[in-house]
Design brief:
It is a single chain. The protein is of the alpha/beta class and 325 residues long. The chain has two domains: 142 residues, Response regulator (Rossmann fold), CATH 3.40.50; 146 residues, Response regulator (Rossmann fold, 3-Layer(aba) Sandwich), CATH 3.40.50. Helix content is 43%, strand content 19%. It contains 13 helices and twelve strands. α4 links the parallel β3 and β4. The N terminus is likely disordered.
Length: 325
């Protein structure tokens, strides 16, 4: 009888030990679905995915990403955002103001993370940076001093420049604000600025011809995803018209642009993965402050400088985070 009791006790203990293992085997961890809404794939999205991997989210195992690209047609964003909502994704990650606005209009319940945006407060996406409110948070790249710093760098590279052209894309809600900040900064530096707008890629050649007629000495490209997508053509036209140009995104310099100065977007997108992780673990977007970038990078293309007949000041080359030979 004692042997029977012992066997029963061992069987009970073994059952209690194996039960959690069986439960784990029958109920694997949840596979999250993340929606991405943007104009098109951009290299920093690779950093976003790398950030997710570092936090333990592996595509095909415990996470899937649903990409929705507008391919330069911002009018598609509302339908693309609605599609992600229909899929009931766990969180939506956006790049740019039009994408964030479309996502916020499409849902008031699914969390939204802005990987990068211009003016989150001014566009009404969040109540304040410290207390976003609602279902949206992330990172705002707007810095009132940034446009002035870019003009200072351009002036250092081209000391004789006095007339600048500012290339901008009015379809972006933030573009007008950035253009205004550029004009204010230029006035403080004693520079004249002529705004030249484009609405589609076919406008680019005519825009650069207009700059030539206006005798522009240099060019400022107002930050916009449109110009990132058309960066090779913009760089080619700038060189053809012998216009030293400054941009915000490093991709412009890698495509043949002269100078770029702006936030480190790879770090911003990697940081966006941290927001996603916190939200998936239960944090509410309203309680996660919107952050601003802390690091700004300078990129210089010496090959382009040579093509333009420019000698870059040693102090600029010393400050550069990357110099393309």
């Amino acid at each position: 009888m004692r042997l029977s009791i012992l066997r029963a006790t061992l069987a009970l203990a073994l059952g209690l030990f194996l039960a959690p293992l069986a439960a784990d085997a029958q109920q694997p961890g949840k596979a999250y679905r993340i929606g991405v809404l943007a104009t098109t794939h951009w290299p920093p999205f690779d950093s976003f995915r790398a950030g997710l991997r570092e936090l333990g989210y592996i595509e095909g195992q415990n996470m899937a990403i649903e990409y929705r690209w507008a391919e330069q047609r911002t009018t598609l964003f509302p339908n693309l955002a609605a599609d992600l909502v229909r899929l009931q994704v766990d969180v939506i990650v956006t790049w740019g103001t039009p994408a964030a606005q479309a996502a916020k209009t499409a849902t008031s319940t699914i969390p939204i993370v802005m990987a990068s945006i211009g003016d989150a407060v001014g566009t009404g996406l969040v109540t304040s940076l410290a207390h976003p409110g609602g279902n949206i948070t992330g990172q705002s790249a707007l810095n009132p001093e940034l446009e002035g710093k870019r003009l200072e760098l351009l002036k250092e590279a081209v000391p004789t420049a006095s007339r600048l052209a500012a290339l901008w894309h009015p379809a972006n809600p933030i573009a007008a604000l950035l253009l205004k900040e550029t004009q204010v900064a230029a006035q403080q530096l004693g520079l004249q600025v002529q705004a030249v707008e484009v609405h589609s890629p076919i406008d680019l050649e005519g825009a650069f011809a207009a700059m030539a007629l206006q005798h522009a000495d240099a060019l400022v490209v107002v930050p916009d995803a449109f110009f990132v997508l058309n960066r090779t053509r913009v760089a080619e036209l700038a060189i053809h018209h012998r216009l030293p140009a400054i941009y915000q995104y490093a991709e412009h310099v890698h495509a043949g642009g002269l100078i770029a100065y702006g936030p480190n977007y790879h770090e911003l997108f990697r940081r966006a993965a941290t927001y996603v992780d916190k939200i998936l673990k239960g944090a509410k977007p309203a309680d996660l402050p919107v952050e601003r970038p802390m690091k700004f990078d300078l990129f210089i293309n010496l090959k382009t400088a040579k093509a333009l007949g420019l000698t870059m000041p040693p102090i600029l080359l010393f400050q550069a985070d990357e110099v393309i030979q």
